[in-house]
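Q: Start with the shorter request: fold the first protein.
A: Done. Sequence, then structure:
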Amino acid sequence: MRLGSHIGVAGGIDRAPALGRKIGCESIQVFAKSPFMWKGVAISDAAAAGFRAAVRSEGIGPNAVHHGYLLNLATPKPDLRTKSKAAFLDELGRAEKLGVEYLIFHPGAHLGTGVPAGLDALVAGLDEAFEATPGLRVRVLLENSAGQGSTLCSRFEELAEVLRRLKRPERAGVALDTCHLFAAGFDFRSAEGYAALTAAIEASFGFDAVRAFHLNDAKGALGSHLDRHENIGKGQIGTAGFAHLVNDPRWADRPGYLETPLDDDDYAAYVRDLATLRGLLEGARPTPAKARRARRASPSIK
């Protein structure tokens, strides 16, 4: 796995790749604007070129933009849907301009209309966005949810349905958040539990659809639907669950971004979490070619 983290851009988005490499990242995730605003200041051509150049010089990737938190393409509310569609198009353009591989977003919530109606709205919103942006290279990744409230896509069947129904499924994929998996009831702490998780992935959307991970321990109990991140090894998942992930050759070329809690000491917590994850690695890192072969063979992890 290409271990990395979410990096802040307060000092300039073009500085994020070098900062990521400085703290030990092999890949990074950023916000392309404030996640709490519908609109943001445009990314200048100079800043975007600086970001792309820094990615090349630092040799990091695959990288991602994380969409803002206000987005809800599954909403039944017309005004919120209009704002969400505009924000999604804007974030697609920002991610493409930065040259990142992925735009990760939360599928949203149906707000009481029911799962089928929410999925209908989500698929329609994605289809409209793809139709409006032909030729874009960036791939959008649906992030699994913890299952709180009326949020969609805590169940693999829902993620699989969205991908199956899209008119342009090659432009989408999945980002799996470990805290959300655990909160939704997937217990991958044991070898048997991890084998069950990978079997569920294979039976639903498949290994190739999984393009990235958010590596977060969980404050809440198994199946609690509590979306509360914890530092690696300090939560309910523990290091055993992460050992299965980082040593699985199927994920050797996939990015794993930390979104764990930070303290007042800049990125020291990320440095510790990255060290913890690397300490779980067994032997040499598998090559990307081995990862592709492993996903095609799709063996169970024992």
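Q: Next, the second protein, separately.
A: Sequence, then structure:
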Amino acid sequence: MRIVDCHVHQSAEADAASVLKAMDANGVDRILVCSPKERVSLQYTREKLLLTKKLFDAAPERIGGLAWLEPTIPGIRGLAREALEEMGFAGIKLIPDHWYAYEQRLEPFWETLHELRASVLIHTGILYGNDDGSRFCKPLYLEKLLHYPNIRFAMAHISWPWCEECLAVMGRMRAAAGHDRTRWQSYVDLTRGTPPHVREQAVANAVSFCGPDRLMFGTDSRVPDGLAKQREHIELDLAIFAKLALAEADQERIMSGTADEVFPGKG
């Protein structure tokens, strides 16, 4: 089975050969790496994008990049365009960092991503960082993106603890698309956050309500730290899929097909 990890973080310079070796050990075919976080500086954001570009340029068929951008930084719209049109990033990574997605000040940023037909991985749910930032990360606020239908977005972590709100947003976006799956903007990133006592039910609910073609597998692993938890997460989720009696084609769709579709490779 092909496996794509849609949610890997980069914390420092990483050697592609070492990353590929760890992926091979874990049975992973492709990863999407979020560039290191930068909250205030356009210059440092660009430097961090270039760090990730160096990594995925060394193995573009197996490593893709997600450009982590802070929308409130002056000049960030031009860097978003550069990341997607020139640097080769597969998409954008966002964390609502003391801003709400519906704020008027963000509309120029959303307009740029709409023009670029960007695919975006957005943190939703509890946030163990960025000070007291969790309240900005409720999935309901992403209803704003109805006004930017060219943007495809995935809600990370099934939005835990707001898993049912995440599915409600999925239903809202599906209805807005007239139940036309080719126009439906939203996806769910199953990357953990959900603790063991709710994980199986949360995944089962997402499969039932959204369908496997709207779900993508991720681990929140890190490079250059060896992707240590990646294999464990693969095995845990495959065990859940087995309990749910998911067809092999549906499992493969979740484990690789959706991410490959939303964040296609450049190699």
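Q: Describe the second briefly.
A: The first strand starts at residue 4 and ends at 10. Strands lie at 4-10, 30-34, 63-68, 91-94, 119-123, 152-156, 186-189, 215-216, 221-223.
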